TrEMBL record, chain A:
Presence of keyword Amino-acid biosynthesis: no
Classification via Gene3D superfamilies: 6.10.250.1280, Fe-S cluster assembly (FSCA) (3.30.300.130)
Name listed for the protein in its UniProt record: MIP18 family-like domain-containing protein
Pfam families in UniProt: FeS_assembly_P
SUPFAM superfamilies from the UniProt entry: Fe-S cluster assembly (FSCA) domain-like
PANTHER family: CYTOSOLIC IRON-SULFUR ASSEMBLY COMPONENT 2B (PTHR12377:SF0), CYTOSOLIC IRON-SULFUR ASSEMBLY COMPONENT 2B-RELATED (PTHR12377)
Keywords, sorted A to Z: Chromosome partition
Listed GO biological process terms: chromosome segregation; protein maturation
UniProtKB/TrEMBL annotation, chain B:
Repeat (WD) residue spans along the chain: 73-106, 171-202, 275-317
Protein name: Probable cytosolic iron-sulfur protein assembly protein CIAO1 homolog
Record's keyword annotation contains Nucleotide-binding: no
Annotated source species: Olea europaea subsp. europaea
Gene3D superfamilies cross-referenced by the UniProt entry: YVTN repeat-like/Quinoprotein amine dehydrogenase
Biological function: Essential component of the cytosolic iron-sulfur (Fe/S) protein assembly machinery. Required for the maturation of extramitochondrial Fe/S proteins.
Highest taxon, organism lineage: Eukaryota
Pfam families assigned to the protein according to its UniProt record, in alphabetical order: WD40
Family: Belongs to the WD repeat CIA1 family.
């Protein structure tokens, strides 16, 4: 890997204030709470960018609005925006998102990860790779890639 | 079977657990399951630890009323993605994510010997499949195409596989990764399914295929769209022409040729859709060749299920 960064000067946005979730009263404690947009966002907002010491939220790679959830259908769709159009880390970021959600969501969930339309030069190719579960499984067999993914995901577990 | 008037359903008759990870594919051994020969089922899976690779193919035999695992084959470097028996049941082809295709020879009841290893024709070959009675190997892949190859023994030592046709977008082919392929009993129709959410039916002139030693062009006949809303991972035709499909929406569909079609173009309709056939993606569906109403399915949830197709009149109930 060459030492030059793809995007040496990313724009850093502030972190959104975390909303405290209010505990609803008169609720059956054993009922499963439906998963919503904010919960998905909470899972992925702190994932570190592979190149910079900032989270995906801070770099506005992912935003709460770019997440679609349908709990009844167990379906999640996340669109992320790489910081530059020819970002070669796009597949790594996509992989991080997929792995994190795979680990955090119940197995019944179907996850679609894609690059936000118009934000990447090879959008179709990246999307195809990210949504091919065999390719994803193959990628996760590469120990170097796994280490990178784990490093990016580490801050998001706290 | 009278498809038009009767109501059909799929009943789960057995669940095989034993793989420790998602089950990618299942295959029934040809000629088994009827006439007193116990049904033999091969299934393949992958063990997902990041540091080591364990690729196992398991062979299950129907002993009495249950299926038991009788043998495992090891050899691929990483996950074994697909298995396919040739027509006589003498050869088994497996294809792994290491992009190679292995051909195993059956030595005896439960002994298999690796006969040949074919290296990467096309990157990302998803699956390989033999033609029902000719030794033509079909492969289909991530690049949205279906290729078929004939094994030609050359003079000297070099036996080579030649690609004789590629079915791509220009022949009304798929617009995304092709995941599976299946032939009808006659070997003149082929069904393929894809990430583009469609199932396509292709045909070829069978007489020409046999005379030209396998080299006859395939043409697109029909596209089935709108039955699955996520990637369709597998299709399989039964001997009676029922097409089964399994997809990432956890459901399985059965299609039959409809009489309402036009003279020249075959028309297919949905016989039934089994929602939530598994708890996770259905990776593979396969009909038992000897028993027309037995269907096996494999899933990401780590199980293999055996289903029986029954009709409302109850005529079709068969016991194992």
């Amino acid at each position: 890997m060459n030492s030059g960064l793809i995007n040496a000067n990313p724009i850093v946005y502030g972190k959104k204030e975390r909303r405290a979730r209010t505990a609803p009263v008169d609720v059956d404690e054993y009922a499963a709470e439906p998963i919503d947009q904010l919960e998905i966002f909470d899972h992925i907002r702190d994932i570190k960018d592979p190149e910079h010491p900032y989270s995906l939220e801070e770099l506005k790679v992912i935003t709460e609005d770019a997440i679609e959830v349908d709990d009844t259908k167990s379906h999640v769709r996340v669109a992320f925006t790489p910081t530059v159009e020819h970002c070669s880390m796009a597949t790594v970021i996509g992989l991080c998102l997929r792995v994190k959600l795979m680990r955090c969501l119940p197995p019944r969930y179907k996850v679609d990860i894609s690059v936000a339309p118009g934000t990447h030069a090879t959008e179709a190719a990246v999307n195809k790779q990210l949504n091919d579960k065999e390719r994803v499984a193959a990628a996760l067999e590469n120990p170097n890639l796994v280490d990178m993914v784990d490093e990016c995901l580490a801050p998001s577990y706290e | 079977m009278n498809f038009a008037d009767e109501k059909f359903e799929l009943i789960e008759i057995q669940r095989l657990e034993g793989h420790t990870d998602r089950v990618w594919s299942v295959a029934w051994k040809p000629g088994s399951g009827g006439n007193g020969v116990p049904a033999l089922l091969a299934s393949c899976s992958g063990d997902k630890t990041f540091s080591s690779f364990d690729a196992a193919t398991a062979i299950w035999e129907n002993v009495g009323d249950d299926f038991e695992c009788i043998s495992t084959l090891e050899g691929h470097e990483n996950e074994v993605k697909s298995v396919s028996w040739n027509a006589s049941g003498s050869l088994l082809a497996t294809c792994g994510r290491d992009k190679s295709v292995w051909i195993w020879e059956v030595l005896s009841h439960n002994e298999f010997d690796c006969f040949s290893v074919l290296q990467g024709h096309t990157p990302d070959v998803k699956m390989v499949h033999w033609h029902p009675f000719m030794d033509i190997l079909f492969s289909f892949s991530y690049d949205n195409t279906i290729k078929f190859k004939i094994f030609k023994a050359e003079d000297g030592d070099s036996d080579d596989w030649h690609c004789v046709q590629t079915l791509g977008e220009s022949n009304s082919g798929h617009t995304s990764t092709v995941w599976a392929l299946s032939f009808n009993a006659n070997g003149d129709k082929m069904v393929s399914c894809s990430d583009d959410l469609t199932v396509k039916i292709w045909g070829a002139d069978i007489a020409r295929m046999q005379s030209a030693d396998g080299n006859a062009p395939w043409t697109h006949l029909c596209t089935l769209f709108g039955y699955h809303d996520r990637t369709i991972f597998s299709v399989h035709c039964s001997r009676e022409g029922i097409i089964a499909s399994g997809a990432a929406d956890d459901a399985m569909c059965l299609f039959v040729e409809s009489e309402d079609g036009l003279v020249d173009e075959p028309f297919y309709k949905l016989l039934l859709k089994k929602e939530k056939a598994h708890d996770m993606d259905v990776n593979a569906v396969q009909w038992c060749s000897a028993e027309n109403t037995l269907l096996a399915s494999a899933s990401d949830d780590g199980t293999v299920k055996i289903w029986q197709l029954t009709s409302s009149s109850g005529n079709e109930k068969l016991s194992l």
